[in-house]
Amino acid sequence: MRWVVDAMNVIGTRPDGWWKDRHGAIVRLVDQLERWAEGSGDEVTVVLEEAPQPALASRIIEIVSAPRPTPNAADDEIVRLLESDPDPGEVRVVTSDKDLIERVRKLGAAVEPASSWRRRIDEPERKGENS
Q: What is the model's pTM?
């Protein structure tokens, strides 16, 4: 399975004060996505509104930043990725943004709501806490 994750949409599912440390929230999400992708074997691309400072790198997932931090920049970048994908029907986009959902479905991609994705990636961590 190939996933394209709308980073801020997923981060925003949890009112944990992420807005006080946006970069820290992105780092935590990338770390969590790396662990999940490593365990699942799925391909994950996380799309950010702008390039984080300091920059982030991963050997497991792809980190993509919109070229310019403008309104809907991450949404536009997700659509661009799907438009250039040889088989967008094999991609699931993680978002709860209604406009983006409509745009990616028109391209043939499936959608998973950000809240259910958050539960999916939290599950392995919760299991580890119970061990």
A: 0.91
